[in-house]
């Protein structure tokens, strides 16, 4: 009968811990790290393993200087091909899969953003691994906590895969701190042929001087109770301007054409956790609550006192939004 002594077994586990590491995908806007990726790096830190980051696109080399300000990052990979410029999942997935295959990376971390949600399942399919989505807590390198049923139940999930792929709900983790730039090793990774014809054609971006919805400290959101686009703009925009707040909306308001779908908050939209969330004319379907109930203070204004939104509100105002909101705006 053969076996390892306790001392030998401990040495082997320590050696494995040194060899194992985490690969974290970092999204950027130009050369700046997105807030959601800063939160994902916090989750990566909690794994307690050396961290290698991956940046792609023509701004990757410049953005690497920003990543070097994260004290926990040990190495930076950059793949500067123009084909990665818009994070097409058909292009990014083969690159990530090639880096993970037969590597020492035991964990792959990405923000649960539109980009991350697009390519993470594809990477899992290529490598035959089961990703864990939208985690809100790291228990250990293979065990995580995540919400399900629109946030009405919380699961603790343990992966049996040799490499654990997971996405991070940014509202659950504080952004990692950026310090002084350091001399971190940077390695260029060549473009990996995707084997498909997917290519970027065009985009239409909604430009605004107001704070970004995903990272704003204050959000003013409107729902179907505002009746039409004209009333939505008349009530929500002035209040948001007074508070220097981002504008959000329920899915019902977006589907009715009150505002652009980039402003949707909820299970199928953006998940936000601002200091203050003001819900105007929003009934509070569970899909919407899943996207905003982690806000520190929630104010709900609705004429229906039985509306579900009041179950999560810290301050509830029952009344006509067409009277209350203009008065509130005037008094601020």
Automatic annotation (TrEMBL):
Cofactors required: FAD
Positions annotated to bind FAD: 224, 250-251, 264-268, 281-288, 302
Cofactor binding notes: Binds 1 FAD per dimer.
Superkingdom to which the source organism belongs: Eukaryota
GO molecular function: electron transfer activity; flavin adenine dinucleotide binding
Cellular component GO terms held in the UniProt record: mitochondrial matrix
Limits of the Electron transfer flavoprotein alpha/beta-subunit N-terminal domain: 22-204
Keyword Electron transport attributed: yes
Gene Ontology biological process terms from the UniProt entry: fatty acid beta-oxidation using acyl-CoA dehydrogenase
Pfam families reported in the protein's UniProt record: ETF, ETF_alpha
SUPFAM superfamilies for the chain: Adenine nucleotide alpha hydrolases-like (SSF52402), DHS-like NAD/FAD-binding domain (SSF52467)
Role according to the record: The electron transfer flavoprotein serves as a specific electron acceptor for several dehydrogenases, including five acyl-CoA dehydrogenases, glutaryl-CoA and sarcosine dehydrogenase. It transfers the electrons to the main mitochondrial respiratory chain via ETF-ubiquinone oxidoreductase (ETF dehydrogenase).
Subunit structure: Heterodimer of an alpha and a beta subunit.
Family, similarity comment: Belongs to the ETF alpha-subunit/FixB family.
Protein name: Probable electron transfer flavoprotein subunit alpha
Source organism of the structure: Ogataea parapolymorpha (strain ATCC 26012 / BCRC 20466 / JCM 22074 / NRRL Y-7560 / DL-1) (Yeast)
